[in-house]
């Protein structure tokens, strides 16, 4: 099994915001060691690649299992409906590839600690 | 100095999303120990309290220093312009209170690790 990770962000009209996601994905790749055979990002809207395109690229490179990670803080319509619908398109095209959607980032149990760390120490 | 923390989220039409932020803020409060005298949340739009209202409540409870933490993943207009503009209103009303805006959550150096943790271990 070749397992890949696709970080899915909303996408923005601001190129800098999309570049920020791409740079974060680079950092995730550096941190991941050999946990995933490939790590890419994709966008729900407003920036390339789309989720189906991002999945397709990973599958072309040999992925047989892809974890889709929603880079979202809240469980809105995007997380609950739109991302699953996009993923379903690729599942239909590639029934032999396992694609699972991980919990969205906001659910992380480490989030309170991350918030406190970002807030800094009261001076 | 009495130092408080205000977690600022975007706010959603979905009540569940706003409640998620409130529950997260409760968890932050539990994790924080005595680092901050008070920890609340506020919303840029679509849900109460607003940022000025949230700041006002903390100041009423004695805060002389407030750290505003943008619970945002990307540096869009909301982070760059809207939150600072709202904070400025309160600064004008309360010149003796120090209000600082922390980096937004997406800048955290721990974010790649959090993403990998949320993605789980390839099975």
Automatic annotation (TrEMBL), chains A, B:
<dbReference type="InterPro" id="IPR002762">
    <property type="entry name" value="CbiX-like"/>
</dbReference>
<dbReference type="InterPro" id="IPR050963">
    <property type="entry name" value="Sirohydro_Cobaltochel/CbiX"/>
</dbReference>
<dbReference type="GO" id="GO:0046872">
    <property type="term" value="F:metal ion binding"/>
</dbReference>
<dbReference type="Pfam" id="PF01903">
    <property type="entry name" value="CbiX"/>
</dbReference>
<keyword id="KW-0456">Lyase</keyword>
<keyword id="KW-0479">Metal-binding</keyword>
<dbReference type="GO" id="GO:0016829">
    <property type="term" value="F:lyase activity"/>
</dbReference>
<protein>
    <submittedName>
        <fullName>CbiX protein</fullName>
    </submittedName>
</protein>
């Amino acid at each position: 099994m070749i397992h890949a990770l696709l970080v899915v962000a909303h996408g923005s009209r601001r190129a800098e915001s999309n570049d920020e996601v791409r740079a974060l994905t680079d950092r995730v790749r550096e941190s991941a060691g050999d946990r995933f055979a490939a790590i890419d990002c994709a966008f729900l809207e407003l920036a390339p690649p789309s989720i189906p395109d991002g999945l397709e690229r990973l599958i072309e490179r040999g992925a047989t299992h892809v974890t889709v990670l929603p880079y979202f803080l809240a469980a809105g319509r995007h997380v609950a409906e739109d991302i699953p619908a996009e993923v379903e398109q690729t599942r239909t095209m590639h029934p032999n590839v396992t694609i699972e959607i991980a919990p969205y980032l906001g659910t992380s149990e480490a989030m309170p600690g991350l918030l406190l760390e970002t807030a800094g120490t009261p001076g």
